[in-house]
Design brief:
single chain, 2 domains, alpha+beta, two-stranded parallel sheet, 58% helix, four-stranded antiparallel beta sheet
């Protein structure tokens, strides 16, 4: 469809005939993401609040469908790149967010860490260097004042504010550590997402939500016993990027429900279903 035709079509949203305006909306939605810039232009120039509201709904629907397609494509990809997955999630609230911006921000954090890092250090000391940079120099930390904010699950917001929830802080920590060639991965512990340093000779755990506190397998066993849970291998071993993205989505659902944004919570639940295996909503 030509630009002029698309503009003319969008202008018909003002038509008072419900049948015509409904047909126009269906046609616009069928065009996909190419319609978004024209809808945004119309929203800026149109002074009718009713039409503006309909345009906002159309833009959100188109952006949501685009996100869903990106998420399904990510799910089907062979590598399931973690940063890309976190970017896709963040575009739910920030549809104009660019992946390249996140890469640049993380590259700067990596560089700040690399300046103080020495590969010949013992594993514990390597982790202490990362802790010193992330939680000391760069002031990353737990968002305990506003724990249930949806922004805690958006990597762009955590990179800006330096405050986040366990999983997003762990993701940033892990992406920097892996770029430093360290064997650090996420661990799906109940109620608290953590990290593990694991190679052929060492395994210990890191709590990014508590300034990179280092602890042992025995500490996890004590924690599991306190929760009266049956120990599972997944409580101790590295998890996949898919499991991380599923958990981040569940955090988003809970956050939106906590603040009364139930429609958004339902939309995020549908995203979770898109990356579930045979109806299983993840670990």
């Amino acid at each position: 469809m030509q630009d002029s035709e698309l503009k003319a079509l969008i202008s018909l949203l003002e038509d008072e005939d419900q049948q015509i305006s409904s047909h126009v909306e269906e046609k616009i939605l069928s065009l996909g993401k190419q319609a978004i810039p024209f809808l945004e232009q119309e929203w800026e120039s149109n002074l009718n609040p009713h039409v503006q509201a309909r345009i906002e709904e159309l833009i959100h629907t188109l952006q949501y469908e685009l996100l869903k397609e990106r998420l399904k494509e990510w799910y089907r990809s062979s590598d399931q790149d973690l940063l890309m997955g976190m970017w896709i999630l963040a575009t739910y609230q920030y549809p104009d967010l660019e992946l390249e911006k996140l890469k640049q921000d993380l590259e700067q954090i990596y560089y700040d860490t690399w300046l103080e890092f020495r590969p010949d250090l013992y594993p514990y000391d390597q982790v202490k260097v990362i802790n010193s940079v992330l939680f000391g120099k760069l002031k990353f930390g737990a968002n305990t004042k506003n724990f249930h904010s949806p922004g805690n699950s958006m990597i762009n917001i955590v990179l800006e504010s330096r405050k986040g929830n366990p999983i997003t802080l762990c993701v940033i920590y892990m992406l920097v550590a892996q770029k430093l060639k360290l064997p650090i991965s996420g661990v799906n512990l109940p109620n608290l997402f953590i990290l593990t340093y694991k190679d052929d000779n060492h395994q210990f755990y890191i709590n990014a939500f508590n300034r990179g506190l280092i602890f042992s397998k025995q500490d996890i066993e004590n924690y599991i016993n306190e929760l009266h849970l049956v120990p599972q291998t997944s409580f101790y071993e590295p998890c996949t990027s898919l499991e991380i993205i599923r958990r981040a989505l569940r955090n988003m659902v809970q956050a939106f429900e906590k603040i009364g944004e139930h429609a958004k919570a339902e939309e995020v639940k549908l995203l979770l279903i898109e990356i579930s295996d045979g109806g299983d909503l993840g670990v």
